[in-house]
Amino acid sequence: MVPQNPTISAGPSPQSSVVRVLLLATVILSLLFSAVFGTIGIFVLKRIGSQMTDLQQMVVTFHIFIQILFALFCFLGIASGAFCLYLLFNNTSSQPWDTDKCLMVAFDNFTRQLCMKAAVLKGLSIAMFVVMWLVEMGA
C-alpha cells in the first residue's frame, strides 16, 4: 500500500467555490450598477442640466464622477484580486509550497517569517479581500 501525502489536497472544497462565485458576482454587480448609475447621471445632466442650479449641476457631476471611479475600482479590484489569488494559491500537486526552498533564499528575518507562515498569510489575504469587497459594496 502506498501512503498518501496529507499535505496535497484534492482541490478546493465546494463551499470555497461557492464563496468565490458569490464574491465575484457581487463585485460584477457592483461594477454594473456603478456603470448604470453613472450613465443615468450623465443622461440626466444632459437632459435637464440647463434647468438646474449651478450647485445641483455640481452635485450631479460629482455623483457621476464617484460612480465612474467606483466602477473603475471594482474592475481593478477584480483584476488585481484574481491575479493575487492566482499567485497565492498556484500550488499544484507537482509543485506544492516548499518552506525549505523559500527559507534558503530568505536573507532577512522578515522574509523567513513570511516563508514559515505562508498558510496564515493566505488565510489573512482571503479575509482582506472579503472585507474589501464588502467595503466596496457598502460604498
Task: Please tell me about this protein's structure.
By secondary structure, the protein is an all-alpha fold. 76% of the residues lie in helices and 0% in strands. It has five helices and no strands. It has helices at 14-48, 54-88, 99-105, 109-116, 118-138. The model is unreliable at 5-9 (pLDDT under 50).
Q: Mind summarizing the main beta sheet?
A: none
In round numbers, the mean pLDDT is 76
State the end-to-end distance. Answer: 56 Å
Fraction of residues in β-strands: under 5%
H/E element sequence: HHHHH
Number of strands: 0
Residues in helix, %? over 70%
| Rough outline | elongated
Number of helices: 5
Give the C-alpha Rg. 22 Å
The low-confidence parts are 5-9
Helix-strand makeup class: mainly alpha
Q: Concise description?
A:
76% of the residues lie in helices and 0% in strands.
List the keywords.
139 residues; mainly alpha; elongated
Which helices and strands appear, and what pairs or packs with what?
Blueprint: H1 14-48, H2 54-88, H3 99-105, H4 109-116, H5 118-138
Helix pairs in contact: 1-2, 1-5, 2-5, 3-4
